[in-house]
Amino acid sequence: MRLQILVLAILIGPTVVLAQHTNKIIFDEMVNQNILYGKVIPEDFQTEPFNAWFSMNYDSYQPDAAVLHDLKPLLKGVTFELVVSTWCPDSKRETPRFLKLLNQLNVPSDRINIIAVNRRKVCPEAGVDEGYIDFVPTFIIRSNEVEIGRIIERPTKTLEEDVLSILKKD
Length: 170
What we know:
36% of the residues lie in helices and 22% in strands.
């Protein structure tokens, strides 16, 4: 699993990582714990205390190969914004799974934007102000920079089936 994340990081390129990676670990008094906050990259989830739940959910998720096959030709011009939190059980479950899905689809890292928010579900430094999202995680899918759909908290069916449904509507 760490090798897959390392490959993902290599694809990003050092300048992109340095230019966009602004995460920090902060103590959120509302949840009484340390959380990731800001723009993050998949490797940030490999640090304590996040790595236990991230690795477990990443490793255990197996996207449907047939649905992956149907998705691949639909990905041109598609970007993904993941607004997540490291304090939320839904984010802890779905974020690793969604990143595994994107990894298996070979989505380039420059088309994935991950923002970790606080308990108020904001991160103004990364463009997430009050009202941008109501629930976490929220996975926003855009085609040619236009939002075409969201997966909020959990998929209706599976992550890959929900993404396919969104992309087929476009």
